[in-house]
Amino acid sequence: MKTGPPHVAMLATPGIGHVIPLAELAKRLASRPGATATLITFASTASATQRAFLASLPPSVASLPLPPVDVSDLPHDAAIETLMSEECARSLPALTGILSELRESTRLVAFVTDSCLFTPINLHAVSLLLHLPELAASVAGEFRDLAEPVRLSGCVPIPGPDIVSPLQDRSNPSYMVMVHLAMRHREADAILVNSFDAVEPEVAKVLRQPEPGRRRPPVYPIGPLIVQQSNGTTTNTVANGGVPPHSLAPRAACLEWLDHQPARSVIFVSFGSGGAIPKEEMHELALGLELSRQRFLWVVRSPSYEGTLSDNYYDAESKKDPFSPGAVVGTADTGWNSTLESLVHGVPMVAWPLFAEQRQNAVMLAEGAGAANRRYAVAELQKAAAEGLREGGAATMALDEVVQKWEADAAN
């Protein structure tokens, strides 16, 4: 058996919202004495933001890009889940080569791949995936047409139209992509989830219990994993609806402007790095914010011109300035990552879901966690998140248990 410090290889699904939490997990693992990690990424979403982020990783975390693959033969309107699945499949030879090299050069103890062994979404979404094969077989029509919500043990009832978007059309190839992914979840050695008990207590309790009559991998809530600077603040770049001077860099301008605002007086508007609202809705939102007379910061992304709410996912750089001149454009994380950042910093939310699992997240936050528009609930969740990440906290102990298991398996 190869000697040396333990090494973990990680594969991040395309998209900065997948890369960031997996990189944070790599940093947390590599903070252990002598441990190292390699983060493997895809070329398709290698934006300037992603490149800068990867360049900022500590020396103990290496990053390796997979070579680009051609997916031009897929339909132009293929769902992002289909594109991601095909890109992953066509990258397997290159991935196999990288893993073989790592086995020769390091003491490789684990391979973590999202969205299977590690999932950057929440426990409600994991529960849905684990039950999806049976749901797909028992629901005759489309989820959006269900008269009653989907009820899973420990979960908030999810109305059919709020089930994750790729499951809303059985005729779309992305539907079977999701069902296949769900079946593969059952084969994992463990599932690490970027969530924490306090935000989803009932489903966390259920997923800890053995499932009679069938195998289910152990589920470890190890979150929240969000980008942190040395002073503990998040490093998202944000953009303001025209308030900071346009001559300054977006991030510096926003922070300078924020420093002069009263505490808890600014509304932050973000639809994620992949989300795109229709142009008409974007202008209505801008007008509403202006008429509200409230201070706001807005991550301005290109609008959807064809009604596809995930228009920006595979176009990581903004295509057009929707408010030219005068808008400062920046980026933020997608979906669940932004939610976790809000919880960590004790900020209540108003949910405006667009695609992927965002509608399901909105139901869970509003009906379950009470994090949407309830400042007291968010303050309590903020405390719980901090407690879990401390030495001896729930998230830290869960990750320690996983690492000990990897070490034991590698020794055998």
UniProtKB/TrEMBL annotation:
Tagged with keyword Magnesium: no
Molecular function terms from GO: UDP-glucosyltransferase activity
UniProtKB keywords: Glycosyltransferase, Transferase
Superkingdom field: Eukaryota
Keyword Lipid metabolism in record: no
Pfam families: UDPGT
Protein name: Glycosyltransferase
The organism's taxonomic lineage, starting at the top: Eukaryota, Viridiplantae, Streptophyta, Embryophyta, Tracheophyta
